[in-house]
Amino acid sequence: MNIQAMMAQARKMQKDIEKTTMEIENSTYIFENENIYVEATGNNKIKQIKIKNEDILEDKEILEDIVVVAVNDVLNQILKTKESKLGKYTAGLGGLF
Predict the structure, then answer these.
(1) Is the pTM of this model over 0.85?
(2) Which of 16, 33, 44, 77 shows its CA 20 to 30 Å from the CA of 26?
(3) What is the H or E stretch that residue 4 is in?
(4) Could you tell me the sign of the dihedral formed by the alpha carbons of 47, 53, 54, 55, in that order?
(5) pLDDT recorded at residue 67
(6) 3-state class of 47 per DSSP?
(7) Using CA atoms, how far apart are residues 48 and 87, in angstroms rounded to an integer?
(8) Interatomic CA distance for residues 88 and 17, integer angstroms
(9) Rg value, the chain, Cα
């Protein structure tokens, strides 16, 4: 393979990565159960937290635990999406990305 072909392939891969990254960042990720609703974007920004069960407001520790679980879940969804969609580009690059 000549250098021009390699450069063209690298430019295409870069555009594909940028497009996929934008798609992920513009996506919405949700955690919801009977107590809480958390919505985040793919760039790890929490858009919304709604307490659905007002009874949990009476116990601060339970509320804190529920929020932590919900936020961690939605952030984990984003991470898994990034790994699955961008992993094909970064596999074998030794953590450069």
Answers:
(1) no
(2) 33
(3) helix 3-25
(4) negative
(5) 97
(6) strand
(7) 28
(8) 10
(9) 19
In angstroms, the CA 96 to CA 73 distance is 26
DSSP annotation of 44 reads: S
Reported confidence tier of residue 97, pLDDT bands at 50, 70, 90: very low
pLDDT in tens, 45-67: 999 999 999 999 999 999 999 99
Q: Which of 51, 20, 24, 55 is nearest to 40 (CA)?
A: 24
Residue whose entry in the numeric block shows the structure tokens 């009476």: 58
Q: What share of the chain is helix, strand, coil (3-state, %, to 5)?
A: 60, 20, 20
* Position 44, amino acid: N
Q: Which two tokens stand for residue 43?
A: 């760039």
Residue linked to tokens 């992920």: 24
Q: Using one digit for the tens of pLDDT, what is the confidence trace for 13-37?
A: 899 999 999 999 999 999 999 999 9
Q: What is the mean pLDDT of the chain?
A: 91
